[in-house]
# Entry
Amino acid sequence: MNADFEARKLVLATRRSALALAQSRAFARALEARAAGLAVEELHVVTSGDKDQTSRLQDIGGKGLFIKELEEALYAKTAHFAVHSIKDVPAHLAPGLVIACVPPREDPRDALIGRGGAKLADLAQGAKVGTSSLRRALCLKRARPDLVIEPLRGNVDTRLRKVDEGMYDAIVLAYAGLRRLGLEGRATDVLDPSVSLPAIGQGALGIECRGEDADVSEILAVMADAETWTCVAAERAVMRAVEGDCKTPVAAYAKRDGDRLVMEGLLAEQDGSRARSGTRSIPFPSDRAEAERVGRDLGEELLRS
# Structure
């Protein structure tokens, strides 16, 4: 770290939800610990996705609604960087903005919260399960065709309350979010990727800044985790190849297995039909460009099949 960057203040843009604040603050504290003299301040932003807590995301513009106003703060230079759940970041970044780093990934799996401690296999025939994700709905129906899948919106506390109050027999959330909030004990079943293939980038953060701010990018880069970034780059290449958005049931999960990158992808039509999957296993890439090539190849295979 150059001496010029010491004793400096950076402003991060973050949503106001408990989960967004938890992950943003954890990142900020870790960054301050790595960059001597750096102070990080918060700019709280209410996004379009936060304002509408009832409509289905695919009906109102998709997950990009959770980052639009954060990116506007970057453009306006009221913030130096923004902390996103990278699964909410569209396949193509807004002009002039870059992902400066991807920190180490949290657990990428989905978690089921069942009433009375129920696991997926324990749910009664025709049980009502809440999820806002077409991908999760597809995976749940493949594992348990009898389940009734119902839309679910709201922050984590709201969703947990809905299952506690009996509106649903179970709900499915990202395990990473529960862990970041200290609520991992609420999970009654952590779903193996063979049952519920994780969303693209699930469990990972994407730290975004203006491309022209080379000094900010350099500061943020100390938090990058090369292995996570490589795996996420491969997954996001699948999303670009299939032109995926929240209307597309698409999943991809890449991980390091010894000296290899092992990856699985899943794609279906919006109604869940024509589900098809594919896998790749290659020597672990030496750069992200190679990871993106294998992800693009897998995505194109899914489109052709």
The chain is about 30% helix and 25% strand. Residues 110-191 form a domain with the D-Maltodextrin-Binding Protein; domain 2 fold (CATH 3.40.190.10). The longest helix spans residues 18-34.
